[in-house]
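OP here, attaching both records as promised.
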Amino acid sequence: MCTSDKTLIIITGPTGSGKTDLSINIARELGCHILSADSRQIYRAIPIGTAAPSPQQLDAVPHHFVATLELNEYYSAARYEADVMSLLPELWRDNDYAVMCGGSMMYIDAVVNGIDELPDISPEIRAQAMEIYTSQGIEGLRTALRDIDPEYYGMVDLNNHKRMVHAIEISMQAGVPYSSLRTGAKKSRPFRILKFAYQYDREALFNRINARVDKMMEQGLEAEARSVYHLRHLNALNTVGYKEMFAYFDEIMDYDTAVARIAKNTRVYAKKQITWMKRDAQISYLNPDDSLDHNVNTIISRLNANQ
């Protein structure tokens, strides 16, 4: 049973902001484990494009939810919540702390606030929902969602095909509109939660993202993408880095354009993460110009002050 003397330290922030190094140093200082909150790092076979922790980093601190699923396996924020809430009591038998590191904001919110209980989606329903997008495009999704759940249609981002597919498949599986299952009720957690993130100005963050994309290409992102190209229909690969490489392989764009598009789309994703973070008043921001040791000590001081 989790008790109030246990603490979950969340290191979040936009992609490329330095979350991994910070979380590892904190976990080493506290002697605790790290739980990845990244919806793509959980899959095997794609460590470069997902900027997964290196083998050395994984050896430095015990990690969870990194390279644990095959690319064709289904996963969701709801399952992540359930898995984390099951794991934390085990980790806290030996340590009062655990570190969660990642930028998948829905995963973090699922653990912090809870998530509505939704039905597991059968492979058949998932295929039917995705077929709407594959055969009819985003307009087909909009029409299907308007028919099956007009309330959610009125509030969803109609350019976000993933969210529309998600709502359609849940509505089809449950037999009721997705919106009717969304309670928005916040769950109480029997442990302390402290959130931290680096605060970059936009130009500095975008420069880091551009440099990281260049590094990924040097590390072999093209070869990694080719190794999973035959699985390009899977949702796990419907993400920045692989989509652009697949377009290059399909001769839809040339190599330089694909690499530039990866950087651009990563920057767009980072802006969405920042927008999400601005709505969260619980995040304490750290200065990236300060030394790593200084920021680790700042977090440790906050932990001691909150005891």
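Record two, same layout:
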Amino acid sequence: MTSTRRSFCELGSAALLVGLVGCGDDAPSGTADAGGSGDPGSSTGGGGTSGALEASGSSSTAGESSSSAADTTDSSAASTGSSTSGDGSTDGGSTGVDLCEASPGSIEGPFYRPGIPIRSNLDLYGDLGIAVHLSGRVIDGDCLPVVGAIVELWHASPAAPDRVPGDTDASYDATLEYRYYGQVATDARGRYAFDTLRPGWYLNGAEYRPAHLHVKIWVDDEQRLTTQLYFEGDPFNDGDPWFDPTMVLALADDGSVERDFAI
């Protein structure tokens, strides 16, 4: 059954989606295709549909993620030189102004697809890979949580831990399974969470792209951020034309990592 971001609002639990905005008609994506090595039959530009096609695997939402000490910490989305207070806001230092600097955007690439399934667990297919538990908050320019923001995550197929580039190149799924595509809504604290596997590498022209995660955030059915996350120590980070060192993830031993997005 196919549903839109409007049906996401209807299907989500009332407790999670209190204050949810983003239930209007689909809005067009504002990012042109770039990067990647070709379109495997997926749509380009997306058309702004953030609602979900119900797919195989259990569905879950950001509200199911447990709280942690990171609830009161800002990631690199906070402005440089600012510190975090107990209420989650940042101290602007000498300016006396509490502001969170907007997270940097990036290309969408040709592999974004509308109709991404509503689910936080993307590790559904028995593939070998390195576990990633990505969680964090969506916050506004005043460092306040954004409730009901839609966070979409997608990435290429994973690589087994012993794989090196050239063994088996990664690819993006173009089937109705939407492998390694998922979306959740932020909870009452602005939190989201995903479980997935670290993606592999694929050729972009003559060069491999580093492992990366694509993220798109919608609020009130308006696209507010399109960006990419990278992984610490990837051999192709430095040579990638879109690599942003401020968007690097350093995984803990258990694969967990926190990343806030300021919009």
